Amino acid sequence: MLRIRLMIPILAGALAATAAWSQQDPQNLQNTQLEEDGLPATIMVPAATGGQAEPSRPNRPAGVMPKRDSNPRPSVNAAASAVSNPLNIPYLGGSVLPNPIVYALWWGDPAAFPADERDGIDDILQNGFEGSVYLTLADQYLFGQKAHISFGGNLFDRSTPPARVLSNDEIVAEVCKVLHNKGLKPDPAALYSVYPTTSTTLYPYCAEHLNGPCPDGTNIHFTFVPNSSDEPLCWVQPPELNCNQHSDGLEAAANSTAHELMESITDPNSDAWTTSDGNEIGDPCNFVYKRCVNLANETVWQLQMIWSNKVSACVQGAGSQE
Length: 322
Hints:
By secondary structure, the protein is an alpha/beta fold. It is built from five helices and eleven strands. The protein has one domain.
């Protein structure tokens, strides 16, 4: 199902804008947001050979959240200031999706999900991300607009999803079918988050976001987050920050949802903020955490950091503890 994206020519004006951001003084902490404890809200992710973020994976398709590497992650220095980084994400000229209505589509037997997953995902989509500092990390990529989401509600298909890797077309067809059955028109400004009971162990990734046309020609955007209950390579630990008492499956689903939500807002069609080999703003910081994240509804989660071109580093925002 993984598709190879054609490289799109980089616009000259966009290059200039990105270059201006990446040339901020890396030693001046005025360019770095400080958190409650006075530490910079940025973390560099040093590679094994030097101070750069994790390199992109060769030929990794756009939209895919890789599973956690089997090799230990390099240590992270919480006090490090940003440095100029060639891994800043370029703008390729495509559109962004700053204000999506997000729907959660639950596909399969409700009893096959972790008992706390639906309520937990509802919490973060309905009133967690909206108004949070975490969501504002996307603002720098939206050309003066502010990221906002609204929750459109839950959709259900209790049929059993195929126990195999699904293609992009098959996932789009599932979303379009459910919308049709519910009497809803496909919305090109919406984001449909699909949660199947299918195990992530069948997939080479933890989650993905893509787009495709419904039968009426409407292009829809979706995220796809398979059930990670039995896939430790998609769990949020190590490290274990003990942010809450939720199940491993819900913790993984929340983290994967955050990763794909931020990338769907900034690169919905895989032609906006992305590198030629598929790195988007969640990828350099995949499974990198500084602290627990407080969302707007006062729930606390272990959510990965997000890449910031402004400070050339992974950033997190609303933290409450180391």
